[in-house]
Amino acid sequence: MSKIDLVMWTKDGAETLPLVLGRIDEIIPQETVNKRIIIDDHSKDETREIAKAFGWQVIFNEGKGISDGANTGLKHVASSHFISFEQDLLLAKEWWQKIPPHLSGDDVIIASGIRLTKHPPALRKLEEYTFERYERRMHLEKDYENLHSGKTIDNTIYKTEALRRLGGFPRLLNSTATDAELARRVSLAGYEWKVDYGVRSVHLRKGLRDELAHRYWYGSCWKRDDPWTKPILLRFLFSPFRGLQIAINKKAPEIVYIYPLLRFYTLKGVLLRGTRSK
Predict the structure, then answer these.
(1) In angstroms, rounded to a whole number, what is the distance separating the alpha carbons of residues 131 and 159?
(2) What residues does 38 pair with on adjacent strands?
(3) Nearest 5°: CA angle at 262, between 145 and 41?
(4) pTM (2 decimals)?
(5) Beta-strand pair 89-90/108-117
(6) Which end of the chain has fewer beta carbons closer than 10 Å to its terminal beta carbon, N or C?
């Protein structure tokens, strides 16, 4: 593999950026890197200054949100492969050794690991359960590749020209659906997005309160008439029973209340906020 470009989209990420960029420097060999590009969404903190101090070129987002930021970044990629990151993702130490080799097959054009929240431990166990379920279903259900199934664009390597042939990243008002829509397009085009569930990066959340705020935002980005919002109320109503089942499975009693809370905040976002972008 020739030298690769690194791309990150940021907005007010000064709190986590030094740790995140430092880890990237530690994990991705310097001799393999061509360009380091940050697409900034007009941050009001020291994000751009921190990025420049770590040797990243800073370019303003041509639009707004992740979807536009990802496509702005893609315009500046000059390498045959590139990697995308998000500003709150602490890269797994084994990422470089394990993820790029997944692109050796002709059909695989994207590869990534997964991300897990560190605190609280019960939330991490809940996420582990979700990813374990994704992995099982991917092996059992042939068409499950059409779904999200743990695919994210925050620790991800791409074949550049293959992605461009697909039209780049989906151009969406709803930034929460960028990775899910990209996964759908990859599958429909007959390609594969390989997820290595054993490579686990850290999602730098501050705790449960931060995750609930994110779920609220996530719900608020959905249109009330979108088809995937219809089961939200039903899922919330059944969440106490589901939470109990998962708590027993993962031996984490706190999941009994964490799981319904997550469902409630997503529902609250759908009902109270309508549609917005990040």
Answers:
(1) 25
(2) 8, 58
(3) 75
(4) 0.89
(5) unpaired
(6) N
